[in-house]
Amino acid sequence: MLTDTGYASLVIPVLVALPVWFWLRKRSKRAPPYPPGPNEYPLIGNVLDFPFRGPLWEGLTDLAKRHETDVLRLKLPGMEMVVLSTSEAISDLLDQRSAIYSDKPHTPMIELSGFAESTLVLMPYGPRWRMHRKLFNNFISASTAKDHDVNQTKVVSDLLINLHRNPKSFREHINLLTGSLALSIAYGIRADTPHNEFVLMYEKILKVAQEGLVPATFFVDIFPFLRYLPSWFPGVQFHAYANKVKKDLHTAMTRPVEHVAEKLKSGVDIDPSMASMCLENLDDWGQKGIDIEVICNTLGILYIGMSDTIKAALSSFFLAMARSTEIMRTAQRQLDSVLGGARLPDHSDIDDLPYIVAIVKETLRWAPPAPIGTTHRLMEDDVYRGMLIPGGATVIENIWAICYDEVVYPEPHTYNPARFLDKNGRIDPSVKDPEARVFGSGRRTCPGRHLALRMLYLTIARILATFDILPADKDGRPSIPEARYSKSLLREPMPFECAVKPRSEKAVELIYHAVAIHQ
Ligand code: HEM
């Protein structure tokens, strides 16, 4: 038998729940539907559908195709996710509505390790991000990318020498090339060995970013409330790890600037760099609200933003050449017809070398270094094509899906630079340019893309002018390397072998002559 209190304990929750239920029903009838996606289960949402196993970009492309949508919704515990897989959807949302699609989502580890507050790529959208971006654009933009041609030419000369001396270690040489370029532009430091103090500092940071800060490596990223546990709590290791990363990141970003400041103070002759120009005009920058911390962060992002991306693209280029000698020969024929084998190609030859330009485009399309870019965060509810995208959603631009759209790029798995050329061998403007998407979109689009393209163009042209890249020899037979790739968000070829050989005695002469000019 129920007492008065017993009745009350049944009736009161029902009285409270009913209006809430009616309100939610009314709201769900009024609110536009969410974008299509797999059915979600209570608590776990779409965890069972999420492509955790294979490469994420391919899994997301398949899911979008299965649900016949270019705006796919996935619900994960504590996270709304929207995946955009056509240029149209990306342009409509990330470009056209960039005022609300430009924030970045953060895991607790990204915040605790200092990456969110000091790296431009992960910084929350707002005045602080704007200040960093302004300083970056002042030195590296469409109009200023050319200012770094001399630095590029110097580090490419070093690369050619290294390839000649030790061709087997071509991946290490590419690594040094990008690190050295970043250090020379940012700080005027010429790093000619992988053991350079500053190269080692930044490589350590990149390793941590790829291994320790990948979402879900630490439990705290899956259960964010754990971040409030004190560091002395039994089993809590993430605080110590995050503090160590934060300290290393701070050192990598400040130490090279201190190095330049010391040199300036002692009156030693140094190569001009972003650091020297900032330090010499500290007061002017200060009046614009840009202090030494903003300067250190902005210069530091050069190594972080440049190194792995250009390295991945150049490694894919070596792989593609070793897999297709005919394509390499076609490029070399064009180089020889323009240069007559008498000099090395320069930035100024770009208009006469459309096949090299096409190789750069096809390399970025065939192997986009960041196949899902870096995620954006929607800052408020948005309605698109009658669908509700909830504020706070993590928005993924599936660059891979665009690069592998077989309607735009027939036989997308085949590496074929000629797809970008017209019948006269010039760049065909009617073929969609992958460069428009592989660098991301909207206000957060890659600010280093012009510099990156100039660097890729020069490096590829100079390598092909002087070297053959051929399949490695295995028991007297050419062994064509397989195109196997990492599943990491910065996608690069797995280790492979190829034979890098100078094209002629004259080519070797040109390589050493170019280095002598820069000594
Ligand atoms: C092949 C080379 C490169 C590729 C494929 C690439 C790709 C990307 C992508 C996809 C993004 C994210 C854009 C978005 O959120 O929508 C990005 C951001 C960024 N990249 Fe690059 N990048 C390359 C080279 C570079 C270079 C050379 C630099 C530096 C000189 C650089 C600096 C940055 C920075 C600072 C950001 C963050 C921008 C922001 O959030 O405001 N990148 N890049």
From TrEMBL:
Source domain of life: Eukaryota
Pathways involved: Secondary metabolite biosynthesis
Annotated TM spans: 6-24
Keyword annotations: Heme, Iron, Membrane, Metal-binding, Monooxygenase, Oxidoreductase, Transmembrane, Transmembrane helix
Residues holding heme: 446
Cofactor: heme
Chain segments annotated as coiled-coil in the UniProt record: none
Protein biosynthesis found in the keyword field: no
InterPro entries found in the cross-reference section: Cyt_P450, Cyt_P450_CS, Cyt_P450_E_grp-I, Cyt_P450_sf, Cytochrome_P450_fung
Any single Pfam family the record assigns to this protein: p450
One GO MF term: iron ion binding
Family statement: Belongs to the cytochrome P450 family.
Name of this protein: Cytochrome P450
Species of the source: Thelephora terrestris
Lineage: Eukaryota, Fungi, Dikarya, Basidiomycota, Agaricomycotina
